[in-house]
Write a structure and sequence with these properties.
Largest sheet: 9 strands, mixed
Number of helices: 3
CATH topology of the largest domain: Alpha-Beta Plaits
Radius of gyration: 17 Å
CATH architecture of the largest domain: 2-Layer Sandwich
Strand content: 25-35%
CATH superfamily of the largest domain: Alpha-L RNA-binding motif
Structural class: alpha+beta
CATH class of the largest domain: Alpha Beta
């Protein structure tokens, strides 16, 4: 049976086990996960937090990470400003980015989800409010959610991947992991 690890990746940690090419050592998965034979299924940028899946099964890894399978990825996104209905509708239709239009996203305004504190904290500007969105995409371009919110005039301040498919980071503290029972083949 395939192993599937659900890891709550903290801000600033690379989604890989080694850091090659940097003159200063940056934190990697190896500081948190000491399991031989598991590898990330997809990636999560260093400045993003939340659910990162790791598996020892190449087919499962491809099914999770490859955009052709259109697996839903849900993010809790703290943005600058207060997006109105027109902005949300634009995200729902798909946003024009430099590398082409995005697929439509599912998006809704949500109350502050009361997540764990981020270290370092986000920048706060007294004159500009912030708000939270729950945004689900089914593709995985580089820094896609950040580029989408910026394209509609609401830059991302904090990005937390909450779920991939039916797997969620709920109940897993930052830097902690658990093995999923019954990982599908």
């Amino acid at each position: 049976m395939a192993r599937l690890i659900l890891f709550n990746k903290p801000f600033g940690v690379l989604s890989q086990f080694t850091d090659r090419g940097s003159p200063t050592a940056r934190p990697t998965l190896s500081a948190f996960i000491d399991l031989p034979g598991v590898y990330p299924a997809g990636r999560l940028d260093r400045d993003s937090e939340g659910l990162l899946l790791l598996t020892d099964d190449g087919r499962l890894q491809a099914r999770i990470a490859d955009p052709k399978f259109k697996m839903a990825k849900t993010y809790l996104v703290q943005v600058e400003g207060e997006p109105d209905d027109a902005v949300l509708d634009a995200l729902r239709r798909g946003v024009a980015l430099k590398d082409g239009p995005t697929r439509p996203a599912e998006v809704e305004r949500i109350a502050d989800p009361g997540l764990w504190p981020r270290d370092p904290p986000i920048r706060v500007r007294r004159s500009i409010p912030d708000s939270w969105l729950k945004l689900t995409i089914r593709e995985g371009r580089n820094r896609q959610v950040r580029r989408m919110t910026a394209a509609v005039g609401h830059p991302t301040l904090r990005l937390v991947r909450w779920a991939v498919g039916d797997w969620t980071v709920a109940g897993i503290a930052p830097g902690e992991w658990r093995e999923s029972a019954g990982a599908p083949r």
